[in-house]
């Protein structure tokens, strides 16, 4: 999956990234596309939002930026505690910094409350991941600390 929005209310992971239509401000009105309505409902129900996305070509992957574009007009992120963890490999030239800069800009426009203490860069080598899960205990511990900080920021 290219990006994940995890809600802490019931530890739900949003998996509908590929179902979202291309963002068009003319379509940001009722009735919303069902995938957009589902995304917004998941964010609205969440106590907080944790984002994990890789950096691609010096920024956010296009499909994940599309997801973020759909969050701006709905207001569900306004005042919502958010944080991010990088998904860059050890070899990534910026360690995800450019993606995070873009993410910060969009989340600020959406009015989200960024929990700085929970926004971390934890380079993850490919061999630390199996079946889409981080398996390295040290990395899992560092991720758990970031999640704890986000929960404390709620």
UniProtKB/TrEMBL annotation:
Name recorded for this polypeptide: NAD(P)H-dependent oxidoreductase
InterPro entries (UniProt xref): Flavoprotein-like_sf, FMN_Rdtase-like_dom, NAD(P)H-dep_reductase
GO MF annotation, one: oxidoreductase activity
Sequence ranges assigned to domain NADPH-dependent FMN reductase-like in this UniProt record: 16-120
Gene3D superfamilies given in the database record: 3.40.50.360
Keyword hit for Secreted: no
Provenance organism: Amycolatopsis melonis
EC number(s) given by UniProt: 1.-.-.-
């Amino acid at each position: 999956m290219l990006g994940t929005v995890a809600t802490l209310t019931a530890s739900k992971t949003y998996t509908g990234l590929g179902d979202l239509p291309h963002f068009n401000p003319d379509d940001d009105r009722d009735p919303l596309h069902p995938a957009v309505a589902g995304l917004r409902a998941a964010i609205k129900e969440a106590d907080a939002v944790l984002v994990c996305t890789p950096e691609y070509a010096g920024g956010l992957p296009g499909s994940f930026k599309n997801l973020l574009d759909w969050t701006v007009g709905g207001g569900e992120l306004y005042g919502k505690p958010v944080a991010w963890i990088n998904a860059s490999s050890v070899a990534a030239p910026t360690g995800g910094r450019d993606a995070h800069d873009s993410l910060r800009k969009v989340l600020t426009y959406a009015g989200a409350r960024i929990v700085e203490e929970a926004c971390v860069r934890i380079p993850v080598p490919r061999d630390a991941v199996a079946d889409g899960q981080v398996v390295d205990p040290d990395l899992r511990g560092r991720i758990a600390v970031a999640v704890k900080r986000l929960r404390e920021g709620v």
